[in-house]
Amino acid sequence: MTGQRTHDAVKARRTDQRTHGRTNRQSRSSSDRVGNDDGMRLILNIVWLIFGGLILALEYAVAGIILCILIITIPFGIAAFRIAVYALWPFGRTTVRAPTAGVGSAIGNIIWLIFAGWWLALSHIALGIAQCVTIIGIPLGLANFKLVPISLFPLGVRIVDKDNPVVGS
Fold it and tell me: How far apart are CA 121 and CA 113, in angstroms?
């Protein structure tokens, strides 16, 4: 009977070692993928910057400057500057609705749509279509299409990292 227990203990230890080894390999491959994702995001952001991101960021910055002329439109200008930074380096970040956004942001979004949002959205659509013509430009075009909703309604939206999508109040 003692021999059977020893055999069972050795078998359990081998199974445990194989399971831990597989877990270690899986976690290493997961960390490798994270490193590869970061590298790919960097490459896409650099290509994005060269092929349209800088122009879009400048459009948002100009809209922000114009909107900061009047005191009442300063919140819109701040939103434009925030989106300008997002338009400079969009890969690896995403947008989420702020849970504390209320009626004020809804009214502000309507005003934004009338005065600034529509032409910024048209820029994203036009540049996205132009970029989707080439196979290499498809990720860039999709990123432009991803920016259309925030260009139309920027208030009540937070820009967060995809790896850490925590929304603050």
Answer: 9
